[in-house]
Amino acid sequence: MELKPVAKRFVLHWGEMGSTWGVNRTVAQIHALLFITGRPMNADEITETLDVARSNVSMSLKELSNWNLIRSVPLMGDRRDHYETTTDVWELFRTVVRERKSREFDPTIEVLRDCLKSGDIASEDKAAQMRIKETLALMEALSAWASEMIRLEPATMMKVIKLGAKVQHLVHGKPSAAATKSANARPNIIGAE
Amino acid sequence: MELKPVAKRFVLHWGEMGSTWGVNRTVAQIHALLFITGRPMNADEITETLDVARSNVSMSLKELSNWNLIRSVPLMGDRRDHYETTTDVWELFRTVVRERKSREFDPTIEVLRDCLKSGDIASEDKAAQMRIKETLALMEALSAWASEMIRLEPATMMKVIKLGAKVQHLVHGKPSAAATKSANARPNIIGAE
DNA sequence: CACTATTTTCAGTCTTGACTGAAACAACCG
DNA sequence: CGGTTGTTTCAGTCAAGACTGAAAATAGTG
User: Fold this and answer.
1) Whole-structure pTM over 0.90, yes or no?
2) Residue nearest the C1' of D6 (CA based)
3) Are residues A11 and B135 in contact, defined by beta-carbon separation less than 8 angstroms?
């Protein structure tokens, strides 16, 4: 299948982006292709469209499955595996966040906890100990936040993101008059602190 | 300078993390070293501690400067360059988010806008056009959200993160009684929708 | 200006991991 | 079961880019 100009550009750009993230180019391209095409494709179609080796496609599809980014769909009268990805970008975003968190964040949190528990921690400067603790606290806070966010429905998540930093008025030290009134009036909503 | 066990582990782990992100190992290690040490260090000290080539340190320091993650501090009676990084993890986080956004997110947004403006867009499926639009909308929303967040003071940002998904009650479709009351009572704060 | 201390540059080497093609494997079908 | 279709594995190749050492550049200092 020959891609139309915009789809081609989209796929190529996504591939480049992928490689500046942790994902390799082919993996990112295949995902972009499935996303933009919006229908299940088999490995040979993908191979032909992207002009890479069949085996490369096979391995990349496996990688995408590990990321929970694609699923195989059976097609009546065709026994080849066909793959599709969600076309809901917010759903997609949620999956990526969840996976990256569990691959990159959680293991680091483990290491930091381990550092603080180890007998060797006492021999470090007090200030260094403090910085490790603060790093852990930051990562735990972000991790908890991400966990909460990915539990939300895509539509809700979108609204929360769009609400954005406006919520700062609920917690800020020098808030506007309106925000102060709100924060003081309803401490029960603001679990923080 | 010989690192103590925990500091060594911290630096090595941070280096590995760096390479699964976009940053190369040495760059991440140097940053971790400056962070955990908490005082300005010169290039030779870093070279000796991390056991890499002097030139590698030189290039990595430049890279860290480009990321705005270190600054050079003059030391009385020593003409060698000394470098330090912030020891405030939230400040650090803010810098990383700002830089990654401008390197990875903003250019992609540009490409997507360009795709939609191009004459070729009309020849794509209606559904594909829609998906590109939605992708752009998602990225713009996240980008705007990040911009707002990094304008906040570290302490405020921390509070907002800790408040977390609880704000969903302000926008959720089936909120608790208290949240509904809040959302209805103060539409002026919730700019969204 | 000659001399020393320090940093930067850069061509070449080395490492890592993506990619390929061929072969093995698995599933189905008559 | 033999043949056909489709998928996965894997050893080897290749490319990107991290890293090095030596040489060049820069900045102080008497």
Assistant:
1) no
2) A80
3) no
